[in-house]
Amino acid sequence: MKTKAAVMYEANKPLVVEVLDLEGPKEGEVLIKYTASGICHSDYSVVHGVLGGKVPMVLGHEGAGIVEAVGPGVTSLKPGDHVIAVLTPSCGTCWMCKENKPYMCSQMGKLMATGRMLNGETRFSKNGKPVYHMAGLGTFSEYSVIPEGSAVKVGNNAPLETVCLIGCGVTTGVGAAINTAGVHKGSSVAVIGCGGVGLSIIQGARINGAATIIAVDPMAEKRELAMSVGATHGVDPFAPDGPIKQVRALTGGLGVHYAFEALGRVDTIEQTWSMIRPAGRAIIVGMPDQKSKIKLGMAGILGEKRIKGSGYGSAHPKRDIPRFVDWYLDGQLKLDEMITKRIRLEDINRAFDEMGRAEGARSVIMY
Ligand code: CU
């Protein structure tokens, strides 16, 4: 069949919106008609060569849609099911899945690194040449073929054009707060960076009952958005006192229980270490260059501070995705507030330009 998709041919060049060939689902795969896809900062990082990606590639990894067809051996899904596409295929057989950590499934790394399906092939092609899939999902396409485990069924009452955000940014952020950090009731939290992921961390902290939630972002508009979804204070890191002093001042001089970094920068990752109190936790959600190194003060180590990365919100998709959808439906999780714009696939390069200028929280492509 044919599908319209946005294809990356070269780093730092606009994506090309064109018609591709798409082969039907094989063993353990499903054909999805996407309803919508969010545009995530990791897509931007691939476009700008910061994160690797095989070209030509259909980008996009934050989609929701409807199952059109299933391949042989697929038992958990059928045509007509509403699904959210998730980053981990939760293969169930690798070591990490056996240790009940599907968010570290070794097949996920394979999908990301190779841009191919789990059996090594691609389903997208153009003039007989392979076109790769980002994360095995390729959500910047009207139709895509994805692994069965990467499609999590949700109720038909969930608006796919909104809950698509749960596929990446929301699960990454809410999960970092409730799963990775385990934010506790009455605690204090600082979040550096208030884009889609940062706003989701703030919501996870609120849902878990944090008493003080400090949003750190230089843009007044983002701090306001953060306050509207649950932050109790906003801090401009470029104000004369700097971010660390301001966060400490808001927590009796002691620092917060949990500081989250959602930008992926070495300097702000190091700041989290100074923002947390003794025995506090720094949780790193942003993705800087994988080869970079950070410096941590020894006094913090002796003060029992801990630092931990968060991968895909330490999420168990089959458990977490449906409950995040329920939280949206009952009003606890605010997603509409995070969607700045709804666009057509053809407008995707403009959306990336806006992202480069740090405008808005999330743009969503509607198919
Ligand atoms: Cu993402």
Give an overview of the whole structure.
This protein has 367 residues and is of the alpha/beta class. The protein has two domains: 2-167 and 335-366, Quinone Oxidoreductase, Chain A, domain 1; 173-310, Rossmann fold. 28% of the residues lie in helices and 26% in strands. The strands form three sheets. Strands 3, 5, 6, 9, 10, 17 and 18 form a seven-stranded mixed β-sheet that branches. Strand 1 and strand 2 (16-22) form a beta hairpin. The longest helix has 13 residues, at 169-181. The two termini are 17 Å apart. The relative contact order is 0.15. Copper (II) ion (CU) is lined by residues 40, 42, 61-62, 168-169.
- Please work out how many helical segments DSSP would assign: 12
Bound molecules: copper (II) ion
Report the count of strand segments: 18
Helix share of residues? 25-40%
In CATH's first tier, which class of the largest domain applies?
A: Alpha Beta
> What would CATH call the homologous superfamily of the largest domain?
Medium-chain alcohol dehydrogenases, catalytic domain
In total, the number of domains comes to 2
Instruction: Provide the structure class.
Output: alpha/beta
Strand content: 25-35%
Determine Rg (CA atoms, Å): 20 Å
